[in-house]
Specification:
Helices cover 37% and strands 14% of the residues. The protein is α/β, with parallel strands linked by helices. Helix 4 packs parallel to helix 21. The protein is globular, with a radius of gyration of 25 Å.
Length: 759
């Protein structure tokens, strides 16, 4: 392997949070010398998070390149300040260090409540449901890792260190897929949809079959047509209320009424084989046993054994010039820095980097937009059919609420809020890659960029005659990022893969559900945003290698299923050490009581976590339970059902925000279960400038969440609203590709480049 930037780092980790532990793990597994300061951790945590770290005292703090300081429940009390001008300090805590919530306590359940995600999970007739334990903190860890890498890029270019801060609330609020934009564009509030996802299509979610469960993600009309044909349900198209295929896709009751009985009579493996053969997004919902025995993962040598013989998830992303390895490392050299003036990085640490973004849907566009937020020039090389058709059915408009004022307008391809969210800060050129002339234009762009990122299935780029080897011939120094659902090798490499199907296949769904109940999908498809975050991080790692070590020509592979399994790594370890994992619903062993309880008003709830005796006494004080103060944690756990009932009878007459504040003052982690309106108008997020208004020439002005990590010297920037379709065709063709005007006009006439979808 060649020299890498991370091998030259000494990282010290202080604090007790999962988020900080995961950020430190990423540095350690990819080559940095990482030391954990502090006490012992539970065995499953040591195996997963700390297997590649050293354990020491605080004597290394003053000489560390990076200090990771985190807190999982409480604000950071003794704030570590940089000891050297070049030192980077990453702080991760429940809420920001300033603002009305700065002193509040939290847990992953409370984080999900206040950030608006808890409201999206569970049955509409029951209390909101927590997702995979600690996954919100894992997301904060990878976000903090990105922030620290961005600060390293600043240091590599300028020699300056800085403070980077992120919070659980910011991270989770930033990862709403479409719930916030539905509100900002139309005032629509997305609530729990049962064991399904809301969106332009159905079925999307967990479905029972004869011998287990599968995840389906049918979101396109052609997919729906094939599904109806394969299942013998084409008669639904003849129903009186059905005019187009979209009427079936947006009518969950109609479709589920026919599909659910059919699936329950089919074997899981048969359904997966049939549907994948038809290019339909489907996957089994895996148990922990299923994961460890999965033929695809084993074919890719994904699992690694530690010194205790425990199987650990392999790399969440693979870099061709990096050796990912379990085990403590030693720093090999000093970190190389430059002397660029800081003002050259006014748009962010990646100023001057140019990226071709070929991605679609969520994971890839998120990765590229984060890089754009950090200052890179990101040129979307769009294919003509990926935004919207020329005409959008009103049924789709009404069901998605993506379009401002629920109107598609004359240019629906420029008014689609889902697209625009991930296109902010980017440029757009539209190239017909199915035509040789389009591929020639794309090829002319490749030598002019630093990074190409795509999230197609492995077969697609070769089918475009744009294989990795072809790109390398055009630009040997290129960083090539590919994001296939299952990776570029293995028996599932060509599977159709969407976030909701990988969610189940990667074990998330089996860990989620009401207590002692069926597997349940989480409110968002976590594999999408977590893959996007890891792809952004891996891209910066490669750029750091180039900046610090002269290492170029890297290939990055981000297999969404492998990234998703890393998000539950400690639970995979716990399964091997302790046996089968129960579905606890909103409860958590070691916390009692913990749950989601009704409040005054329609569908208003509060999440409450009693994490220690002090928070129990605080709850008793607020609720007036003088008779229960003496209960210890074991007694509270044993009487959890009783305490839940008593707590619900108290909260049901309380206003959620007032109760949240009263409990927090008493030292109890508590959060109202916010909807999208609450999140957008949240005083804490407003106090730190989390939402930024951007004006779009066709879609109008809306607020958007910024990148969730705040860099003191070189912050991420929100510079422009999403580009209209093909807005930068001339820039791409005339300036970058260096075509003549007549050549460009010929491409326009042929429809090779365009500013609207094909008819």
């Amino acid at each position: 392997m060649t020299d890498t930037a991370l091998e030259s780092l000494l990282v010290v980790e202080i604090g007790d949070s999962v988020a900080g532990a995961y950020a430190g793990k990423l540095f350690a597994d990819y080559g940095s010398e990482v030391h954990v300061v502090g006490g012992d951790a539970p065995l499953e945590r040591r195996n997963f998070f700390d297997a590649s770290k050293h354990r020491s005292g605080n004597e290394l703090l003053s000489n560390a390149d990076i200090v990771i300081q985190s807190s999982g429940t409480d604000p950071i009390e003794l704030v570590y300040e940089p000891s050297l001008p070049q030192q980077i300090v990453l702080r991760i805590s429940p809420f920001a260090s300033s603002g009305p919530y700065a002193t509040w306590r939290s847990t992953d359940l409370v984080d999900a409540a206040i950030a608006g995600h808890l409201r999206l999970s569970g049955s509409p007739t029951r209390e909101p449901l927590s997702g995979v334990p600690d996954i919100v903190h894992m997301a904060a860890g990878i976000t903090g890792f990105i922030g620290a890498l961005a600060a390293l890029m600043t240091r590599a270019r300028t020699g300056r260190g800085q403070i980077v801060e992120t919070s659980h609330q910011e991270v989770i609020a930033a990862l709403h897929q479409f719930s916030l934009l539905r509100y900002t564009h139309n005032g629509a509030i997305l609530n729990r949809m049962g064991n399904r996802y809301s969106g332009p299509g159905t079925p999307i979610g967990a479905y029972e079959c004869a011998d287990g469960w599968i995840g389906l993600a049918i979101s396109q009309s052609d997919q729906m047509e094939r599904l109806l044909e394969a299942t013998g349900l084409t008669y639904l198209l003849d129903r009186e209320e059905v005019e187009t295929i979209y009427d079936v896709m947006t009518n969950q009751e109609l479709l589920d009424g026919a599909l659910v009985p059919y699936l329950r009579n089919q074997a899981r493996s048969d359904l997966v084989e049939l549907f994948q053969a038809l290019r339909l997004p489907v996957a089994p919902i895996s148990t922990m046993d299923d994961l460890l025995a999965d033929p695809h993962l084993n074919d890719r040598n994904f699992w690694e054994s530690d010194t205790d013989g425990v199987r650990l998830p392999g790399p969440p992303f693979r870099l061709s010039h990096h050796e990912w390895a379990i085990g403590p490392k030693q720093r090999k050299r000093s970190f190389r820095t430059g002397d660029e003036p800081l003002n050259r990085l006014k748009d962010g640490p990646l100023s001057g980097i140019r990226i071709l973004d070929m991605t679609r849907v969520w994971a890839g566009p998120l990765a590229a937009r984060i890089l754009a937020d950090l200052g890179a020039e990101v040129l979307m090389t769009e294919v003509p059919w990926t935004r919207t058709p020329l005409e959008v059915p009103q049924s789709l408009v009404d069901s998605t609420h993506y379009f401002p004022d629920d109107e598609a307008g004359d240019q629906p391809w420029n008014r689609n809020g889902f697209h625009n969210k991930y296109a902010n800060n980017k440029l757009s050129t539209v190239i017909e890659l199915d035509k040789a002339e389009g591929r020639e234009l794309f090829a002319a762009l490749v030598p002019k960029v630093d990074v190409v990122i795509e999230n197609y299935a492995p077969r697609v780029m070769p089918n475009f005659d744009l294989s990795e080897s072809t790109l390398r011939e055009l630009n040997p120094d290129l960083t090539y990022v590919t994001m296939p659902g299952y990776g570029r090798s293995g028996p599932n490499s060509d599977w159709v893969a969407y976030g909701p199907t990988i969610d189940g296949h990667a074990g998330h769904t089996s860990l989620t559900g009401y207590r002692n109940d069926i597997p349940w999908k989480c409110g968002i498809a976590w594999p999408d945003p977590t893959a996007g975050l890891h792809a952004a991080a891996a891209s910066i790692v490669a750029l750091l290698d180039r900046q610090c070590c002269g290492t170029t020509g890297q290939t990055i592979e981000v297999a969404q299923v492998e990234t998703a399994i890393n998000m539950i790594g400690q639970h995979v370890v716990a399964f091997q050490l302790d046996g089968p994992i129960k579905r606890w619903g909103n409860r958590r062993p070691g916390r009692a009581p913990q749950g989601v309880y009704p409040c005054k008003g329609q569908d208003r709830w509060i999440a409450i976590s009693v994490v220690d005796d002090a928070s129990w006494l605080g709850l008793c004080e607020v609720a007036g339970w003088s008779d229960l103060q003496q209960l210890d944690v074991d007694q509270r756990w044993e009487r959890h059902d009783e305490l839940d009932a008593r707590l619900a009878s108290f909260t049901v007459d309380q206003e959620d925000r007032s109760l949240m504040t009263a409990l927090q003052i008493a030292g109890v982690p508590a959060g109202a279960v916010f909807d999208a309106a609450d999140v957008v108008n949240d005083p804490q997020l407003q106090s730190i400038g989390f939402f930024v208004p951007l004006s779009h020439p066709v879609a109008g002005t809306h607020v958007w969440p910024r990148f969730a990590a705040r860099l003191e010297l070189t912050p991420a920037t929100m510079r422009r609203a999403a580009a209209t379709m093909g807005e930068h065709n001339e820039y791409a063709a005339l300036e970058l590709a260096e075509l003549s005007r007549s050549q460009y006009e010929a491409l326009l006439k042929q429809g090779i480049v365009r500013t609207e979808p094909p008819g």
